[in-house]
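Input structure tokens:
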């Protein structure tokens, strides 16, 4: 499927990934010959094709080209694209708002007159090219104060509040002498009666006139030194609080009057003493919308909802039609102001990170790069910073808003100023992360990046005894690091219950949902709990991926694996039985028939397994590939592809050692070209906005890709070391930066050698001895060796898993064949020198084993000869 986005500027850049999450690729159409320099530019690599409508005569041939692509939608990415999107969608017979009222959706004079004709409350107004005539109207019929602005601009561009007729004439003269933010000359100015009251934003998305309200925000404004009123804070309101219901009811009437039946809308409304009155409305996304931020505070975002409305209209109607958002957290979007003027020489990153470290700050958007002009703030476009903030209470948001005022002017160094350390007048607070489990790579990154950490150290992880806690890191012992109750009680016992954390993070698969729940409770960054659930529950995960149009196995939930009497047959020729939320192929087996399923059920019931909810998945043939990477702000910023030597199920069923190798991005570029779009789409479908991921999928015949599963964490084993060796990317550091809301900035440098890992396996019994790490490191090609299983430890009998290993080695070689040869040689060498006593033997059997294992030693009892 294909969607067409017209003028994907500004927040329109979020639409390609939103459509990709639903399996829809995108094509871009530009409505002007040249790009509009005042707006954030569309990202060309996000689009399959691009077209330019430089003049009206281009519309028919562009429409014909688009028709050949079979699009499901044409929509505006931002304000200037509305008329052309209306025209193209109408010509192509798609869901459309139609062209009849297009001008009323762009021209503010026609917009208000259309509302007046529909009997809706609105401002008095007059337009014209004569400033004196507009001033005379305002002094008489229109009334003072009056508002003067362009007919078709946005972002507060050239909006003047005038209290005298002379001010009206002067403001109209300024408007007529300028271009709007889209580059068009203002041939007329618009004068309107001033609407007294508080101004609000109402954002919606609709299908066939059935609208969902995405959010209602109150504008808090401030006055500049020149007397202009400009935006300061957008404050999210509770949907049940006055005057929100009245605003929503009014905007629904406005949408109908202006023919906005399909897609997004962004309305600005003043609650006057007589009731709501429209300032203006755009049939496009809110220009201050950030998907991850809105997901956190609203549970959804306008870009994703818009994509759903066009790509899956029936699903949109079922889930959202006529409904209203839920406020999950207090939230504010702050547009900073400045009185400074000059060319930016540098951005002072320490100050940016100091702002980002404030407890309620979700994201700092630095809007000017070196070489750009910083001007005194007069409107939204000239605001130098946009800061997204959320928390549990408004007081904490206010406190951080005040803190930002002390820091904001230190972000930019202007030409002629010394570039270097800035005195912000504040003591820099080190960020603080709560880690569920002792992750050595995250802890290493904390030490390197000046981040403090508190580790909730579970009993199982503590007893494993392999990961040390660095000096200076606070560790609190907990019974279970995946239990919110256990973690919170431990924090309070340690006197840390009131500490302000910046983020909660875990690489422990079992604690992922807990990390999200704790982050919400503590009012800090962390994975959204609903997103975490979809990364844990294999059935929900596959449902989302399938809804995005990606190929994945069919799945059936087995509510209680201890009792499968209700299952009378398998839906699939072969199936895979595994826990609905497991890890490391534990209790993952191939089921050939009903008898196999019943036997597994009997075994698990006898073992009294704690996990009882399982899934039966359709067996997928093919090579099993992996993708380990990092996303930030919904964009894939790094991806390392690889392949298992044999699929994990084959490894488990046949008791083979697991091995993997990385694809080279140069010599095996074809693999990246094939897989990266698939990976992007799957990650977007699952809703991961920032952080590391480990994905497994299958490559079948004809390069058909089938999704397997994905974890919202770094891969286990030696994947971190493997990626760092091959690509020079420290996944721990990248993940930590994402968790703190900072760009991971991976400095990718690909190593030409073939890089891979193999497990060194154990067998049922007690480990007596094995080669040391130092001995392994002396073997050819070994870059890193790790012995994980202690002498005296016992490998239990029963179903195998990829966790049944003594250690692992990271190996480099000149070729794939050389790597596989080294793997085989190392495994053979290690096995020959490893001693494991067999399980369950009686003393006679163990004595026989002694003699066979050490034939040169005498184990006879000297008393009996």
């Amino acid at each position: 499927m294909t969607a067409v986005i017209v003028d994907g500027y500004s927040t329109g850049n979020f639409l390609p990934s939103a459509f990709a999450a639903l399996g829809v690729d995108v094509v871009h159409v530009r409505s002007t010959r040249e790009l509009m320099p005042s707006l954030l530019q569309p990202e060309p690599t996000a689009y399959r094709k691009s077209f330019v409508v430089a003049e009206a005569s281009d519309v028919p041939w562009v429409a014909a080209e688009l028709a050949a692509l079979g699009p499901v939608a044409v929509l505006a990415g931002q304000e200037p694209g509305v008329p052309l999107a209306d025209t193209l969608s109408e010509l192509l017979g798609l869901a459309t708002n139609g062209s009849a009222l297009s001008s009323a959706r762009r021209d503010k004079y026609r917009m208000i007159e259309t509302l007046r004709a529909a009997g809706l409350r609105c401002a008095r107004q007059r337009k014209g090219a004569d400033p004196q005539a507009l001033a005379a109207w305002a002094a008489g019929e229109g009334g003072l104060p009056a508002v003067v602005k362009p007919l078709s601009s946005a972002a507060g561009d050239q909006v003047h509040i005038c209290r005298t007729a002379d001010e009206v004439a002067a403001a109209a003269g300024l408007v007529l002498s300028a271009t709007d933010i889209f580059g068009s000359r203002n041939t007329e100015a618009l004068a309107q009666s001033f609407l007294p009251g508080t101004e609000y934003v109402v954002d919606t998305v609709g299908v066939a006139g059935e609208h969902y309200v995405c959010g209602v925000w109150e504008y808090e404004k401030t006055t500049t030194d020149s007397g202009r009123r400009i935006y300061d804070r957008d404050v999210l309101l509770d949907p049940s609080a006055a005057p929100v219901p009245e605003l929503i009811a009014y905007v629904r009437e406005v949408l109908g009057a202006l023919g906005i039946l399909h897609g997004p809308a962004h309305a600005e409304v003043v609650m006057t003493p007589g009731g709501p009155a429209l300032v203006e409305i755009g049939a496009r996304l809110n220009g201050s919308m950030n998907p991850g931020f809105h997901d956190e505070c609203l549970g959804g975002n306008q870009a994703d909802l818009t994509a759903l409305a066009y790509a899956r209209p029936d699903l949109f109607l079922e889930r959202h039609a006529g409904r209203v958002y839920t406020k999950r957290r207090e939230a504010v979007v702050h547009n900073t102001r400045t009185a400074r003027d000059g060319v930016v020489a540098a951005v002072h990153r320490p100050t940016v990170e100091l702002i980002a470290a404030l407890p309620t700050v979700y994201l700092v958007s630095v809007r000017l790069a070196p070489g750009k002009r910083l001007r005194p703030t007069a409107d939204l476009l000239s605001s130098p910073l946009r800061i997204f903030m959320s928390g549990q209470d408004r007081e904490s948001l206010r406190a951080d808003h005040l803190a930002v005022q002390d820091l904001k002017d230190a972000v930019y160094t202007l030409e002629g100023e010394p570039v270097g350390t800035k005195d912000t007048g504040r003591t820099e607070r080190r960020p603080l992360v709560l880690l569920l489990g002792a992750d050595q790579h995250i802890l290493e990154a904390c030490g390197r990046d000046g981040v403090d950490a508190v580790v909730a150290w579970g009993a199982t992880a503590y007893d494993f005894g392999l990961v040390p806690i660095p000096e200076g890191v606070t560790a609190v012992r907990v019974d279970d690091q995946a239990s919110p109750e256990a973690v919170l009680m431990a924090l309070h016992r340690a006197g840390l219950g009131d500490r302000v954390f910046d983020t909660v993070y875990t690489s422990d698969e079992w604690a992922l949902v807990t990390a999200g729940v704790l982050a919400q409770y503590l009012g800090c960054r962390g994975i959204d709990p609903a997103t975490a659930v979809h990364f844990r529950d294999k059935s929900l995960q596959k449902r989302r991926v399938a809804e995005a149009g990606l190929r994945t196995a069919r799945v059936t939930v087995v509510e209680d694996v201890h009792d499968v009497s209700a299952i009378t047959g398998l839906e699939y020729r072969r199936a895979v039985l595994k826990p609905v939320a497991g890890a490391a192929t534990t209790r993952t087996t191939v089921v050939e028939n009903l008898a196999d399923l019943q036997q597994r059920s009997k075994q698990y019931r006898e073992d009294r397994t704690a996990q009882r909810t399982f899934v039966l998945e359709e067996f997928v043939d093919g090579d099993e590939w992996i993708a380990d990477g990092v996303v930030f702000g919904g964009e894939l910023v790094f991806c390392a592809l690889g392949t298992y030597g044999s699929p994990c199920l084959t490894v488990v069923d046949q008791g083979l050692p697991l091995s993997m190798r990385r694809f080279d991005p140069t010599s095996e570029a074809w693999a990246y070209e094939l897989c990266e779009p698939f990976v992007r789409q799957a990650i977007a479908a699952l809703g991961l906005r920032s952080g590391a991921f480990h994905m497994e999928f299958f490559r079948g015949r004809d390069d058909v890709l089938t999704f397997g599963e994905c974890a919202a964490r770094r891969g286990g084993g030696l994947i971190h070391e493997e990626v760092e060796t091959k690509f020079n990317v420290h996944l721990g550091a990248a993940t930590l930066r994402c968790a703190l809301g900072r760009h991971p900035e991976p400095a990718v440098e690909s190593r030409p050698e073939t890089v891979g890992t193999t497990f060194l396996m154990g067998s049922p019994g007690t480990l007596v001895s094995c080669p040391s790490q130092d001995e392994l490191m002396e073997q050819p090609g070994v870059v890193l060796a790790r012995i994980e299983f202690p002498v005296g430890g016992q490998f239990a009998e029963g179903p195998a898993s990829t966790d049944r290993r003594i250690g692992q080695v990271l190996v480099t070689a000149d070729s794939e064949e050389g790597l596989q040869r080294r793997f085989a040689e190392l495994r053979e060498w290690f096995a020959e020198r490893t001693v494991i006593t067999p399980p369950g033997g009686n003393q006679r059997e163990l004595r026989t084993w002694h003699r066979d294992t050490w034939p040169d030693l005498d184990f006879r009892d000297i008393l009996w000869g």
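The longest strand covers residues 210-223. The chain has a mean pLDDT of 90.
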